């Protein structure tokens, strides 16, 4: 039995991938995922479910992430024979008649043996029974707008079958299927695009199929023809499943339920640039990035590369360890199983703000002032990133981040939760404070800000760490620059074109994690240049490396349009420090 099921699953996946390569995607295909819902009755239980009859309700089950029906693996072929399809995700069309596609859509009604909430007709609650004890259909619900009725002729009438679906609570951000047109192959062989674009609309595209597709160019399989409206805020969702200890994987399936699956992208299978190329002409487009600071930077770089105008504003669902950009924009320090519907509502209500982005480059050997030092083993000659969104640091804190990175690369299974990651940081950071590993940092660096030499301040203070801030938050929510302003410094803002330079000793770094603003304000500048004379740890937005002697330059690149979550409904305040 087990071998049969494994064979069936492999055959199903291979046929799905093959259909993508041959551009035979079907609009009503179910999105089957594994489920542990062993108590849920098979959707075919009332019409001769073969597994239920033969195996006494045992057997492996699959759940459709898009319409939430549950069936036994062995019953999927019978479901196909019944022609019970999932909610449509695109329309079939051609180059000449794409505007002839419908501009409204019907409900996608599904029988439910368990339903929360109240009937949309009579307003009474649905009876709550355990599914495995009950085969009775208690409700009929729409997979799009989430309306549900009692399974009674007084509640669900024939007129419901003819009604147009409103797409429900999140209609403003859902991309309707009739916006996405699949073109017939014979009419589009003259349109050549990258092969990844031809199949990007599949939410289940695997890395193996992606690599096979990239071997040769393909015609443009899909186009997007939106119907502009000032009320619509169509949303693209980018999710990094590797972030947040498997939280990302679960979120993919949740977003499939609330949105059109073809507006949700798994970044391990589809690059953000590929999706943005298709949707770049959609007006009022918004983006939700689910991941850490690195994922946010990846999406912003893709927008830069395509030179999208206007710049689509980007919201953040924090799944990383630090999540400093998310904290700055009020999205919080981490995802805590907040209802997805509430998150989508926050994205709809969020206001656009600007955040500076900086070019950062470093390489080559430094010469001139300072002591000479050996380059050391394991050094690199280039920084891990060439664009900085959050901060750049050099010295003690970067050394802790580098140790964390190397340990995670060696044993990734030990770093599968945000809590474990923070505990590691605390442990390594405490050891580094006791060892005072970088007490001589200032002997091997020179700092110049806006053409002014700052070596006297740096060497006098004997910093163990030098930090360049673009946003107020740093190291999982601390506020190194502080909130108070003085006559010597302007108020810190992430959109003013200035960097804040702060220095720390080992002790002040420890105090910072306890909530104190114990760093030394060095200066604010528009351009900074750091020369190093030995190999030393550095980090850009949490991406560390051991950099050989180099000259590192930081200066403003452009501004990104971001979405700031409203703390209070009706508030439209701009991003401030702290």
From TrEMBL:
It is found in: Cell membrane; Cell projection; Cytoplasm, Cytosol; Nucleus. Its EC number is 2.7.1.107. SUPFAM superfamilies: NAD kinase/diacylglycerol kinase-like (SSF111331). It catalyses: a 1,2-diacyl-sn-glycerol + ATP = a 1,2-diacyl-sn-glycero-3-phosphate + ADP + H(+); 1,2-di-(9Z-octadecenoyl)-sn-glycerol + ATP = 1,2-di-(9Z-octadecenoyl)-sn-glycero-3-phosphate + ADP + H(+); 1-octadecanoyl-2-(5Z,8Z,11Z,14Z-eicosatetraenoyl)-sn-glycerol + ATP = 1-octadecanoyl-2-(5Z,8Z,11Z,14Z-eicosatetraenoyl)-sn-glycero-3-phosphate + ADP + H(+). Pathway: Glycerolipid metabolism; Lipid metabolism; glycerolipid metabolism. Coiled coil: none annotated. Pfam families: DAGK_acc (PF00609), DAGK_cat (PF00781). GO terms for cellular component: cell projection; cytosol; nucleus; plasma membrane. It comes from the Eukaryota. Its main location: membrane. Belongs to the eukaryotic diacylglycerol kinase family. This is Diacylglycerol kinase.
